[in-house]
Amino acid sequence: MKITRDLYQGSLALLTDFYQLTMAYAYWKSGKGEQQAVFNLSFRKHPFQSGFTLAAGLDYLIDFCRNFRFDEDDLAYLSEMKTKDGNPTFETGFIEYLRKLEFACDIEAVEEGTVVFPHIPLVKVTGPLIQCQLLETPLLNIINFQTLIATKAARICFAAQGKSVLEFGLRRAQGIDGALAASRASYIGGCSATSNVMAGKLFGIPVSGTHAHSWIMSFDSELEAFKAYAEAFPDHCVFLVDTYDTIKGVANAIEVGRILREKGRELVGIRIDSGDLAYYSNIAREMLDQAGFPNAKIVASNDLDEHIITSLIVQDASIDVWGVGTKLVTAFDQPALGAVYKLAAIQTSEGKWEPRVKVSQQAIKINVPGRQQVFRFSKNGRAVADMICLEGSDVGRDQFTILDPIDPTRMKKINTKGLEVESLLKPIFQKGQKVYERPNIHEIKQKAQRNLEYFDKTHKRLVNPHIYPVGLEESLYQLRNSLVFKMKNNDGEENHI
3-class SS at 115? Predict the structure, then answer.
């Protein structure tokens, strides 16, 4: 089957905040538009009070950048914009600049399926200041959501303890695009299949589903409905048993299962979508086993998430497959990741790179300056620590000290002898040309599972996870502090505690 890769083939240049365009215009007016700059996309806190985050969305980012341009109707719309006094918002010369604009940035990014942590740059964009600025909003939109959902899916799959998790969230998702992106990210995070048929077509995700209560209600009896469904799908019978009475529903499923067996077919399973899932699943398991259907699966759904699944497993619920919808695709308990995109360095007219820092009264909002790289140290297949350092740093040293950018009392010395090291930021675009070989979604999912195995289970527990060591290399930490002190003392500015 041919898998569609370019989901967004037309221009999406106007999928941005208005202030990105006003800044771009002001850069152009001031002559700074072509000045080279570096921006980093990162996040400040793990979602869901998790101990890890799973990167996703790079494939969408690639499609967006490959098609980044202003079409004639985009330019016509911008040309018609007026200020409050009735003058054109943008000069004709700027409109012409946008007409001729060709994507020319370098992009490095963490690959999808990589476990990541706060302050690590997930995407690094280097290029003309205007282009870097115009990419901010769409890149955040893409990476924020898919990373959030992939992380939620991974947590749910951990809770399921190896049993299959199906993503059933299309009808409750945040619009058409939200549903597609959520299905894709959920599969990367570990889900086995989706109910979303369009996601199956576009991305090659396995699709799954049986029937709804309306199927049962359209017949005079539940038994009649089960028999009719078995006629249509004799090899794929998973009967929804809770339309009227769950226990009677299981009995009817068993009766139709016997009919299927007489025809050389087997009952695949039942689904319970309401009520006390632990209680009814255990009764259903006992009934199915006693009737000679020990291999029939019990599927459970009904507003599940990682915490409810954990509770049901503790109760020894007899559930083989978990159908998760609303709380997965909407990231029910945390609706946004909160990633940010900050200027980290700018090139002078002499070609020198100067680091830039944003100063804030909140330490967590002070960005990490400079052109960065991230290295992950590991030993015997287990991650040891991540180090954020300046690009070009020598990683061949025997020892490093890393410091938490928010809490300097959290520091770690890394003895590199016997450790493996990997650079997490991979080249994606060079001078606007794609240089990255895109894996398919199944390879991305496999990478995510391998990546999660690199980390101790204490980092992945759902409540109060152990904190994995991530920090700034000592010289970068000192650079950041010196820039903060310099900016706070600029112009003799009085500082307050």
Answer: strand
Cα–Cα distance measured from residue 237 to residue 271, given in angstroms and rounded to the nearest whole number: 10
CA distances from 281 to 34, 68, 105, 148, 288 (A): 64, 51, 55, 31, 10
Rg from Cα positions in the chain: 27
pLDDT digits (tens, 9 = 90+) for 388-402: 999 998 888 899 999
All domains in the chain, ordered by first residue: 18-149+335-490 (3.20.140.10), 152-329 (3.20.20.70)
pLDDT digits (tens, 9 = 90+) for 484-495: 999 888 754 555
| C-alpha–C-alpha distance, residues 154 and 348, integer Å | 43
Strand-pair partners of 41: 123, 341
Residue type, 440: N
* Angle at the Cα of 35 from the Cα atoms of 33 and 39, rounded to 5 degrees: 95
What pTM was estimated for this model as a whole? 0.95
C-alpha to C-alpha distance for 360 and 365, rounded to whole angstroms: 6
Give the span between the Cα atoms of 389 and 472, in whole angstroms: 6
Burial of 475 (0-12, 13-18, 19+ CB in 10 A): middle
d(CA 438, CA 434) in angstroms, rounded, equals 10
Q: Which helix (H) or strand (E) holds 32?
A: none
Amino acid letter for position 13: A
